[in-house]
Amino acid sequence: MVIFEKSQSGRCATAQVPAPNSTTETLDPVWLRQDKPVLPEMSELDVIRHFTQLSQKNFCVDTQFYPLGSCTMKYNPRGVQHFAMQSAFLQHHPLFPTDSAQGILACLYELQEYLKIITGMPFVSLTPMAGAQGEFAGCAMIRAYHQARKDNARVEMLVSDAAHGTNPASAAMTGFVVKEIPTTQDGDIDLTALQQLVGPHTAGVMLTNPSTLGVFDRSIIEVARIVHAAGGLLYYDGANMNAILGRVRPAEMGFDVVHINTHKTFATPHGGGGPGSGPVAVNDKLRAFLPIPIVAKKIVAEKTEYYLWEEEDCPESIGRLSTFMGNVGVLLRAYIYIRLLGEVGLKRVANYATLNANYLQQKLQEIGFTIAFPQRRVAHEFIITLAKEAKTQQVTALDVGKRILDFGFYAPTMYFPLLIPECLLIEPTETESKQTLDAFIAALKIIWHEIQHSPEKVCTAPSRLACKRLDEVNAARNLDLVWHEKKL
Amino acid sequence: MTNIPSEFKYTKTHEWAYRDEDEDFITVGVTHHAQQRLGDIVFIELPEVGIRVHEGEEFGVIESVKAASDLYCPISGQVIAVNSALNANPALINQHPFDAGWLIKLKPDDIADLDELLDADDYAAAVEEEDSD
Amino acid sequence: MPYIPHTDEDTAAMLQTIGISSIDELFSDIPRDVSISSLTGIPAGLNEMAVGQLMTQRASHVEKMQCFLGAGAYEHHIPALIWDIAMRGENLTAYTPYQAEASQGTLQLLWEYQTMMASLMAMEVSNGSLYDGASALAEAVLMAVRLKHKSNHPVIFVPTTLHPLYRRVLTTLLQPQTITIVEIPYDETQGIITLEMLDEIARAHPELTALIIPQPNFFGRLEQVDALTRWAHAHQALVIGVVNPLAMAWLKPPGQWGDKGADIACGEGQPLGIPLAGGGPYFGFLCCRLQNVRQLPGRLVGRTQDKAGNVGFTLTLQAREQHIRRGKATSNICTNQGLMVTAATMYMSLLGPLGLKQLAQTCYQQCQFLLTQLTAVSGVKPLFVGPHFHEVVLQLPQAPQKVIALMRAQGIFPGLDLEKWYPALKNTLLVCVTETKSEADILTYVRLLSQSLA
Prior knowledge:
The complex is a heterotrimer. In chain A, about 35% of the residues lie in helices and about 10% in strands. Chain A has helices at about 45-55, 80-85, 85-90, 100-120, 130-150, 165-175, 190-195, 220-230, 250-255, 330-365, 385-390, 395-405, 435-455, 455-460, 470-475; strands at about 125, 155-160, 175-180, 200-205, 235, 255-260, 280, 295-300, 305-310, 370, 380-385, 415, 425. Chain A has a 7-stranded mixed sheet with strand order 1-7-6-5-4-2-3, with helices on both faces. Chain A has a 4-stranded antiparallel sheet with strand order 10-11-13-12, covered by helices on one side. Chain A has a two-stranded antiparallel ribbon with strand order 8-9. In chain A, helix 2 runs antiparallel to helix 10 (about 330-365), helix 4 (about 100-120) packs parallel to helix 10 and helix 5 (about 130-150) crosses helix 6 (about 165-175). Chain B has one domain: CATH 2.40.50.100. Chain B has helices at about 30-40, 85-90, 90-95, 120-130; strands spanning about 10, 15-20, 25-30, 40-45, 50-55, 60-65, 70, 75-80, 105-110. Chain C is α/β, with parallel strands linked by helices. Chain C folds into 2 domains: about 65-75 and about 360-455, Aspartate Aminotransferase, domain 1 (Alpha-Beta Complex); about 80-345, Type I PLP-dependent aspartate aminotransferase-like (Major domain) (Aspartate Aminotransferase, domain 2, 3-Layer(aba) Sandwich). Chain C is globular and about 80 Å long. Chain C starts with 7 loop residues before the first helix and ends with a helix. The chains are: A alpha/beta, B alpha+beta, C alpha/beta. The interface between A and C is large, with 199 and 196 residues.
């Protein structure tokens, strides 16, 4: 039942409503609404039951292995949540003077410093509120860079054909014409094609490394050389940083600008669709254009004081991306996570994320699944393709994903990257034990057997969940987006 | 009717164009191959009657659950009719891509432009090449 | 190893399965000359207890003050159950509900949110959230421009009574587009924009794409939403309402403005159960007419059936979004503010239409009570004539710095000095009073303000 069906007119959680006071002051009716909006009328007990029951229908990292490629669904340490939600932080108004917020600003300043070390880039801004906003900021900074040099011919942004959809979308939102660079059979960027595509029209190239194909592009130094020689800048999509923490940095690879997904690499919780945050880090070329505000530090009478650089301090900045300081609560969580792991802990992340992915790939290959790049070492995620099974058994990647749900695991990412047909992109992350991986492998062994001998079990999945496969065509053809009271 | 009828002309982007004998307009739609790849069509965005469209230019969007593809104009001309039945029933495109699922009728600038399009055999070859990729 | 469960035996067994002898071999593809070996400068890790102590110490360096400040972020009582339930693992650690069958909780909640938000705005549809109010407004402008796609030179009228930081964000996010932003100055007596001013500015910009109308505006004043909406529609322009969602439970909502209603409604959802939290995370909402739903950015949840005929919920119209439409998507947004929407939905459910209305009215009355008490303080009065919601600009007899410093020393932050944002508004303070202040709190405020001015 939806909540509106549990509603009873006139019911109210009266403990939550402010007591009526003695004032009779009110506005003239011309300003007021005369109707009652469609909001539930419930007791507090009914509300808590409804939403608790709803939550129990969700798969989540706290209850299930969640090998969602590209999303880095690692454990979200509970301590991080607790410490980030102290009342002093939660009660702080963003427009209180900075001298009253020193505790918050100290954490954010140090986070900026850590991200500089982690990316190898000397300058950071924390304000983008998600990876996509970080991408927008990066593209806008690249645009500002060329405009400052009065180079108005650079209207194209190149993205890998394996790129996450936000890359071309962000580039388009920033006014660029988007062109795609093909990938080779081996999973590396096609250098010949790249050389042909870059030129005086190239503002920049957006890549990630390892790529969305799960492999490290070995020619990245050459890619950077080609792009820079043509006068373009190189953008790093930080979605896959979990694979390289402490091993290699975007700076050494030749990138000029990076965004980080704190809700991936730095374990800030995914929240059912956010909030995340997408800090950006740049080298000297783009320093002047960083979005504001940026946390700064000065020494006054031997005391450290944190404050904010705003419009006056950063006259060439691309400006503000959010009303205040971005997703401060999320940034605090990223800070706390880094303090928990420390240098050694951060370096272990890539090691064990990569170990887990390679182990899982090896085992799935032994079962019989087709690996997308059997000749390559994979990074922190890998791809299996069901293209053959789709032809011979009429079992698709979607079917397999739904059957995995029946075994109590969340499905891997499906049909991304677009280059590999019928693919599942699997990212175990470093916080999963060998026992969990072995349980997943055992389930996939059963599913493999079903694909060969009883494919209908896979094609009709999920069958063990309360919710069966949904009619998405109907959902799109007959839009039912809001509840309406049925009139008798 | 076969999946690539021989009386029709085609584009590499999976539109078809058909001219009835002696008519001075053409009808445009998407092929069986296109609707099969898209899956169940949920929505179609078509141009207004009267506007001019140019060869190769986008004239609308065809949307399924898993994709939204641009529709490319086969030859330049003026839109003289759109298939309004598709508003309530976009499934017509899946069921009858070559007749009841037609998209627009176009008065071409030059009817000879039709000859530049692919014939059924060439289109069949293009589809086969695409499928084997 | 914190959060990494592998024992030495596990690691050895896994290396053997892969057929290598060390983890380092996994990284053989990384060219040697770009590899690094350490992250010098990252401090050594701390265990949970030590980090907790560190963060407690950091929290102690955040000054707690009684808040009479609004300006886009509002303090309201947040019922205890909201964050208890929002922080359940099933809400906190779930991800975007792409696998609908495994995410019915998230999806149903979003569908219920869509219903509540759309109705609160008196609009037909709502999306599943954007980052914050300012970026939601930018998306609303981009949507309005797409809807009027015949215009080659879109022009947007932006009142200077719109939050100054929203105007800055609009400039940044719309920079790459060829959209002209024209500012509409406000009437200095009334603190709102007027039809006369619109008429005058429209002479230089005959083709207008959209008019943005804030309600209430940054000064807390109520704009003439009906007249402004009719004016915009008479000029073939779309109306984008930027509103306080709590206020809309009591005030006339955008869908009821003028004769046809606003075309798009958006704003900041923070007042609905989200803590101030130093500025974020909050969430932005965006609502529109059903006929324009395909131009609405962000996620949408639709109700449908599953194969067994049971009611179910799924993301729909995904073909508009970045992961499918890529460069031609309605927006690049992927991760939004899901957890904040979860909290806001529970908040709206708990208070209901009557509770929210009463709350909005109480906030208004609190502010009126403050004004009544302030009549006894010489030299202090509301700067603008006309109805307000819960915020008001006070004219002071002197610059506010001293008042702010003295009241702050007493643990009260009295309001925002507006001169930085509006250079003409010298000696002013933007003050907000919500239900969180008792009558005694307000009387104390008045007393301390009076003393500080002496």
